[in-house]
Amino acid sequence: MNHESRIIPVMDIMDAKVVHGVAGQREKYEPIRSRIVKGSNPTDVAEVFRRIFGVEEIYIADLDAISGTGNNISSVTEVVDSVGVGVMLDAGVRNKADVERLVEFGVPRVVIATETAHSYEDMMEIAEHHPEEVIGSLDLMNGKTLGSCSDFRDKNPVDAAGMMESLGLRELIVLELALVGSARGPIHPGLVEVCRNTGMTIIAGGGVRNREDLRELHSLGVEAALVATALHNESIRP
After folding, report:
1. Residue 71 gets which letter from DSSP?
2. pLDDT digits 0-9 by tens, 43-58
3. DSSP state, 5?
4. What whole-number distance in Å separates Cα of residue 6 and Cα of residue 67?
5. Could you give the number of structural domains in the chain?
6. 42, 71, 118, 232 — which has fewest CB within 10 A?
7. Helix (H), strand (E) at residue 171
8. What is the dihedral of CA 210, 7, 185, 162, to 10 degrees?
9. Structural domain includes residue 1
10. Are the C-beta atoms of 127 and 165 separated by less than 8 Å?
11. Residues 140 and 157: beta-carbon distance below 8 Å
12. Measured between alpha carbons, how far is 150 from 148 in angstroms, rounded to an integer?
């Protein structure tokens, strides 16, 4: 029996390159420096993740789409078409039309996130029409819910998670941006409380350093962990 949370490798893409995310400070992100892959081409990175770690799914954050400055859909579709892994894409969707555009491009799973959704009503419409294609993301910064709309802004994590569970979502990413790329460990009060108070399958993002962290997450009830830095620096090996 595996007593570790499952690994979902992460690719943050900006200007068609995989970049190293640090604490959500996106203006400071630079192309990755990795021990397992040369360069920062998204397809090359995804192929190495698939080959070395045998993963079936990769999480991609299209940072240009999230910030509203463009998109990297061509890079994403190339990964979907050529690498043979499932893709979970956060492209900053704001409404149902955004989700449908990504589904038409062949994206298997689309993230609907508190950081970018226009409103709770928009999330409700998305979940109603695309229950199989979407996964929720509770975005936090130092324990506070990030929300572009007042429905989520400043809600405590448990209340925000409860709102998303009421949509009928079965899976929820709990992403603490302050921990991304920090090597500070993935356990934080918001994650603990959400795990204790929700029936959704939880995926944790931010701070994973090693397999001990994966075991701690498993003991907390976390099904999977979003991981990038620890894979590139070989702190976690196959």
Report:
1. -
2. 999 999 999 999 999 9
3. P
4. 29
5. 1
6. 118
7. strand 171-176
8. -160
9. no
10. no
11. yes
12. 7
